[in-house]
Structures are given as C-alpha cells and as structure tokens.
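Researcher: Here's the sequence for the chain we discussed earlier.
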Amino acid sequence: MGEGIVVAGDAPTGTSEETGVGTVAAKKTVGEVPDAVKVPGARADGAAAPGELPVRPGEEPWSPAEVDEARAVLEGEVARLRGEIRSAEEAVSGLMRDSGDGAGDDQADTGTKNIAREHELALAANAREMLDQTERALVRLDAGTYGLCESCGRPIGKARMQAFPRATLCVECKQRQERR
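Model: Thanks. This is the structure I predict for it:
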C-alpha cells in the first residue's frame, strides 16, 4: 500500500502526533447546570423513607400518609390514562374500519371522518405523553428524587408536588423555560 493512504483496519495507532487527532473540549451549552447542583441519581437501597423526600425550606417533611396519597394519585392516573389510550385506540380503529374506500362519500363526509380520526389520534398521543410523565414520577418517588427540580436540583416544593404530582421543574425553572 502507498504511503498516506489509510484503508479500513489499517488506521495507525499511537499518539495524537502520529494520527493528527487532538483532544476536543466539550462545548458548554447556555443554561448548563454545574455538576455541584445536578439532581442526584436513584438510591441503590430502593425507595426513600417518607421524611427523606426533598422539601423547600420552611415546609414540613413528607409524612408517610402524604407519600402514600401521592403514590395513590399517580397510580390512579396511570390506570385512567391507560384506559383513555385504549379507548382512543379503539375509536381510531373503528374510524379506520368504517372509512372504507370512501366511495359514495361527499367531501364533507370525508373531511368529517378525517377530523374525527385526527382528534382521536391527538387524544391518544396526549394521553401517552401524560402516562410517560406519570410513570416517570412514580420511578422518581421510588428513587427518592421525587420533588427535586430536574434543572437546578433544588426542591420543587411539597405544595406544588401535591397540586401537580408530575412536576419535574421548580416554579422558577418552569417560568424560565416558558419564556424561551
């Protein structure tokens, strides 16, 4: 083989001077959170004790009853959303079956069927997204990270978590996100 030609499998190995490859530093993105305040990972020992869930300064710790209530609300949402998805999928299936070849339909009938199908598809997609968020909240509850902001790592606040159990951002980070 000629010099200067590299064939797959023949790539030189060695230092960056030999290959001409240098080290590239990672680019820091706007709004990146320093490692010191990143949200901690899941606990290795399983679910966190109720008093260990994060709260804002001045808030009472989570009681076992409050944690059980949050879990029940989330599990109820999972069941409701799965039923909603199943219902929407059955409706779409029925609309697809009934649409046939469209012979004999005028434009208004075809348009109405298309709108109904798109509506049911949108409902199913929304329910799937909410189901993903709800299941993720249950995982975070088990991991002990329920109530920690995924952006800044600070506690979201018990009152906010009780009002909106799928919350993943504190009020400040959510407002910042919505302004973008």
